[in-house]
Amino acid sequence: MLSKWLQKYMKFHNHSDNRTQMGLLSGKVGLVSNLLLFVIKILAGLISGSISIITDAMNNLSDTASSILTLFGFYAAAKPADKEHPYGHERSEYISGLLISLVIIFVGGQFLITSINRIFNPTNLQMSPLIVALLVISIAAKIIQGFFYQTIAKEIKSNTLLGVAQDSFNDVYSTLVVLVASIIESMTDWNIDGFAGAFLAVFIMYSGIQMIRKSIDDLLGIRPSEDELIAMRDLLERFDSIVGYHDLLVHSYGPNKTFATIHIEIDDSWSLNQAHNLIDKIEKKFLEELDVELVCHMDPIAVHNEEHTRIYQEVKQILKTYFLNLRFHDFRIMETNENQTIQFDVVISDDTKQTDDELLAAITKNIHQQIGPYDVDIEFDRLDLLKEVEE
After folding, report:
1. Sign of the CA dihedral with 21 first, then 22, 23, and 26 last
2. pLDDT at position 6, please?
């Protein structure tokens, strides 16, 4: 229902950039709702004298700051590319996520200190049905808020909003702990308010650390998801005229700004125009269907040269004898007046114990023994995204 409402909202407002507008909407809703929740909980905390409830209220105040940072992040990310930032500003969203994480950790740390003081200096709580009702209302509001963030995050594929949604659900759990602890203390002689506050503070800090790790990963750059790699592979498989492909590199400059490079193997008997037309079609399909700006490097393969094909098959058999699931590409034989050189790249699994130098020596020796006295030039690659997908 929420997803349908959001679609109607965007259709009614007719925005050109739905992603930015949904992000801004989430920030505005979060700003207002978290302020209201802060007021509700701070009143409940002051009336009851519960440090854990006050800690929970301040957590909502930090969520308000997070909403402000969310607004800032989406405003900055919406800026178009300029001379200084030719790839746009979409990574600003990741920066806002990192700042939100730091705010959460700071708030958690401050109230951990306060809660420890309460453990050593306990006070009596003044609980009432009104305070219980206020906390129950705040729990319900946080559940709705979490699903709201989560729905928008899935619609616009925002990891930052997914983190904010998780923070909202964390608030539900923490408020439940506070509510149960306050009720138990008011009904017994156990002074557990400080312990509940300390537990809550540690929980807040832990969630902030998890968000920092995610934001840093986004800023440093992470590998594409399995679904994205499979979509790229399936699209390439639709072009029957290419001999093969390898060395896919994907660079993300934000949720909607992805660039990639790949090597495409083609028949070396093709004309330059024929090869260019094929490459152009592949690049256009990537942009239209996957929203990825692809740049292709052409590798000519001598598919009609019987001697090259024979040597290619023999090299393939040699690599199979190592039982390391070795794959190779960019195979060619360079001929000069003095000698002939066999060149190719070998893809190695990360868990392979042999070093590159050891494999080079062994493969070269096998080629000399089984094929002939060729010079051997091998490049080793231990990271191949498409290989991992195929396996």
Report:
1. positive
2. 58
| Interval 66-83: pLDDT, tens | 777 777 777 777 777 788
Predicted TM-score (pTM) of the model is 0.62
- Neighbouring C-beta atoms of residue 335, cutoff 10 Å: 9
Domain extents in the chain: 2-220, 223-301, 305-391
| CA gap 343, 330 in Å, rounded | 7
The superfamily CATH assigns to domain 223-301 is Cation efflux protein, cytoplasmic domain (3.30.70.1350)
Closest Cα to residue 368, out of 377, 360, 376? 376
Quick check: 193 and 181 in contact, CB under 8 A? yes
Residues 210, 177: contact at Cβ < 8 Å? no
CA angle 116, 121, 122 (to 5 degrees): 95
Architecture of domain 305-391: 2-Layer Sandwich (3.30)
**pLDDT tens column, 307-345:** 888 998 999 899 988 888 888 888 888 887 678 899 998
Among all chains, which residue has been given the structure tokens 């759990």?
Answer: 173
Q: Are 67 and 171 in contact (CB under 8 A)?
A: no
Q: How far is CA 121 from CA 54, 79, 117, 190, in A?
A: 16, 52, 6, 13
Angle at 108 between CA 107 and CA 111, to 5 degrees: 85
CATH code at 2-220: 1.20.1510.10
